[in-house]
Amino acid sequence: MRKLFDEDFESIELIEGGVILNKTIDPNFPDVKVKAQIEALREELATIMSDPAQLSPEATGKEKLALIIEVFYQRWGFVGDDETFFHSNNSLLDKVLEKRKGLPVTLGALLLFFCRQHNLPVEGVNFPTQFLLRFNWSDNDIVYLNPFIGEYTDEHTLQAWIIGYEGPLAKLERRHLETADNPMVIGRWLGIIKQALISEDRFELALSCSKLVFTFNDDDPNEFRDRGLIYHKLGCDAAAIADLEYFLSKAPPGVEATLVGHELEKIKLNRPTVVH
Fold first, then answer.
1. What three-state secondary structure class fits 28?
2. How far apart are alpha carbons 241 and 177 in whole angstroms?
3. What pLDDT score does 5 carry?
4. Torsion of CA 214, 219, 222, 225, to 10 degrees
5. Are strands 101-102 and 151-153 parallel, antiparallel or unpaired?
6. What counts of helices (H) and strands (E) characterise the chain?
7. Which of 41, 222, 226, 234 is deepest in the core (most CB within 10 A)?
8. What tens digit of pLDDT does each residue of 123-133 get?
């Protein structure tokens, strides 16, 4: 299998990396069509931004951003899908562009691209709960945009998210808001797609995702667990047993290990006996 991170993701836009990711997972992904759709949107936005009736030639960066947000969410109709949040359609760019619905990372990757086309000081943030966009207007003027809803997110909300994610004693720290490089975001995006495909019983594509993960992260016990369970669903029980046994050899005692252990025993019991 192609090694996903052979691509120099830091030399391209995040959205381009997303296209590569989608194509690597599924060879049938219509990458040429998707690139053409994104380019058409880029050209449409450029026309709007150069129209003095819609944006002054002396417009500030904040005024440019306000218009980009209005175009992206109002005129084009992109929206966060809070009804079927975890469906793979929200992670796969052809479906996102078709339905104009997505996740923070897919909508954020698109918006990041369009903002950079107009020289806005924007970066991606791999916040623990979701992908954010950070706009660095000055050292004392930094704001965070939630691409899922197209609105700014204040410190109080970020603190609440951290408490929900890490527990009641958690504090919002600088590390939570550090900008993320493209490989880090692509890795997160890959994990989201993999889990969506598993939940939809699309195990062949889920296995493709899992194999991609192992090209750059081959020692995470949780990845062995996921791949083992996928192998079992595909009827590859010998491979499933090997992966699940490895997970159990590394996992700490607890509910997760107990559940996987029970599943492993069922797989072993149900394997056909080969008589020579």
1. coil
2. 40
3. 60
4. 70
5. unpaired
6. 11, 6
7. 226
8. 999 999 999 99
